[in-house]
Amino acid sequence: MTRHHSRALAAVVGIAALALAGCASTDSAAVPAGDDQEIAYPEIHALLPDEIAERGYITNMTQIPNAPLEFEDADGTLSGIDPELMDAVSEVLGVEIRTETTADFAALLPSLDSGRTDIVFSAVLSTDERRAAGYSFVDYFQSYTTFMVRADDAEEIASFGDLCGRTVTANKGTQYPELAEKVSEDHCVAEGLDPIDVLPLDQIPQQVTQLQQGRSDALIMGVEYEAYEMSKAEGEFALLDEQLDPTKYGIVALAENEQLLQAIAAALTELESQGVYQDILEGWNLGGSAVESFELRAAE
Hints:
alpha/beta; D-Maltodextrin-Binding Protein, domain 2; 6-stranded mixed sheet; 5-stranded mixed sheet; 11 helices; 35% helix; Solute-binding_3/MltF_N; signal
């Protein structure tokens, strides 16, 4: 994938730094509060909670592999859309984002509850149900959900109704099992047909393997994941034309940490105004997934 955002972001931060400090420059991706070096965006940095500004970093939990949103390169480097956005947000906020990874998506939100992490920046669906449970969001990515099947089965499985009585895998701990069950209720059970057999699995690679080996008939996930898997196995898979309603991924924090989310929203807004946000998404051929604005969706 091409990644143009580094040069663009360097230019943005460099211009701001020069305006503030003459010819001063820094190679650091994050400048903790209290450091002798200038903060590139002091007004945005000032939005951070005092505790985080003083410690100089934000803690984050991310689930991998979850390509193209987040995954490890061959050398173990965290890569993908979310890490690139995190790097850019870190530059604007003037603090580091320290990321811990897990293979278990279901462990993400509990990491907030336990105080282990400040935020979860890991393609979490921004839902009213999660807000009702005490989580606040800043949405940053729009996704569309549908089913992926083997290309050889594309004519036989061409619509939601064609999935009735078949096995569909979904990523455990996400909203996808629930979405598949809803498709089953609306398009199968309501029509007197056999329900879809929804099989939750721990990781996306497991879903793909099951489909390749014929142990499932389809998988459900966001089209960005499906497009990425299709790019690695050209001609092997196909997508249904029918899609569920658009969904959004959000950066998550507890209600008590909404000030931090407000600061992150301001950083994303700055990146959008400079074209860096769009540049990152387009670098992964997902420019159409940009959101129109970055607003806090507070816990209810």
